[in-house]
Design a protein that fits this description.
alpha+beta; Alpha-Beta Plaits; 2 domains; 5-stranded antiparallel β-sheet; 5 strands; 6 helices
Length: 174
């Protein structure tokens, strides 16, 4: 590969990483053509971008991006695929689905999600449990609505209780 081509490839990798909120480094070397197609299809459906990259080019691309990716560099060995997504847990859920089917690959090497580095395949469950931004916003809204609903409910039930008490008292006086 010519030096100019390498520079373009590094720029493209860096641009892709900046475009997405998180990325995963995955081992996919042992997948056959059928499984690779299945993985690519699943990534497309989950809005995850899958790229097979050279480790040295990815290393240089990470160095060119603002941020600390030093913990990821030791994982850049063997064959590496880059999975980029805007939702932090989407690639992890996708990888877990493949593992549930009995596949050992693709295997997680490392991930960079929400400015945190996760290294090792044992982090897959943790990554799958991370809530997305929209899920967190929904949780906060539900928590904020809960006290208001309780007040409205108490006022509604209290109003009917008060009405019942007044009605009982008015009948008692007769």
């Amino acid at each position: 590969m010519k030096k100019e081509d390498k520079g373009i490839a590094i720029e493209n990798i860096a641009k892709t990483i900046k475009e997405y909120g998180c990325f995963y480094l995955v081992e996919t070397a042992g997948l056959n053509a059928e499984k690779t197609s299945e993985l690519r299809r699943a990534c497309f459906n989950a809005d995850v971008k899958l790229l097979v990259v050279k480790n040295t080019l990815l290393h240089k691309a990470l160095e060119s991006i603002e941020g600390d990716f030093a913990e990821l560099y030791p994982t850049l060995k063997g064959s590496t695929s880059l999975m980029c997504a805007n939702v932090g847990n989407a690639p992890a859920k996708l990888l877990k689905d493949f593992i549930k089917k009995g596949d050992t690959l693709p295997a997680l090497k490392a991930a960079y999600v929400e400015e945190t580095v996760y290294v090792g395949a044992d982090q897959l469950d943790t990554l799958a449990a991370i809530k997305s931004k929209n899920e967190l916003i929904a949780d906060v809204i539900a928590l904020l609505q809960s006290p208001a609903k309780n007040v409205v409910s108490a006022l509604t039930s209290g109003g009917s209780k008060l009405h019942g008490i007044l009605e009982t008292l008015s009948k008692k006086e007769d």
